[in-house]
Amino acid sequence: MRHPADGNDATRRGALRWVAGLSVGAFALPVVAQERRPEIVQPGTPGRKGLMARAFEMQRLATERGDQAFGAVVVRDGQVVGEGVSGVLTTPDPTAHGEIQAIRDAARRLGTARLAGCELYTTFRPCPMCETAAYWAGIARIFHGEAIVDAGVPRLPRC
Ligand SMILES: [Zn+2]
């Protein structure tokens, strides 16, 4: 099986189905939400919906550029302070995930490596590398996906 980072959303969906196929007995993992059509929300809409819409705008830019379909933004006090478009294929850089790009952009713009109090909005559940980067940056909270899932405070994944 290919690593999920090797492909686009369709590949990731395939990976999720593959994982779901590993279910034990009757405890099948549900494969939902990924197939749902996104609600049309314009960037600039107040609140979390508008902020996540901006992350999806970054995702759209990524696909327009021929990259993986992921985008993210870093937010401080309700304002976008960092934007990230996946650059894995076009840079090329295997670490240029949308979240990493957004964190780097925010650090550049704010002139600090400490993004305490900032929130990360990302179009897909962050991988361990990106969650770790958010942890080291001091990001306060992560939200992901169309449903704006609150993933809480970034944690260091267990090795
Ligand atoms: Zn990542």
Describe the structure.
This protein is of the alpha+beta class and 159 residues long. The protein is built from four helices and five strands. It has a five-stranded mixed beta sheet with strand order 2-1-3-4-5. The protein starts with 8 loop residues before the first helix and ends in a 7-residue tail after the last strand.
What can be said about this structure in brief?
This protein is α+β, with helices and mostly antiparallel strands. It has helices at residues 9-20, 47-64, 98-110, 128-137; strands spanning 71-76, 79-85, 119-122, 141-144, 149-152.
Notable characteristics:
159 residues, alpha+beta, 5-stranded mixed β-sheet, 4 helices, 33% helix, binds zinc ion
Helix and strand layout, with pairings?
Blueprint: H1 9-20, H2 47-64, E1 71-76, E2 79-85, H3 98-110, E3 119-122, H4 128-137, E4 141-144, E5 149-152
Parallel strand pairs: 3-4
Antiparallel strand pairs: 1-2, 1-3, 4-5
Bound molecules: zinc ion.
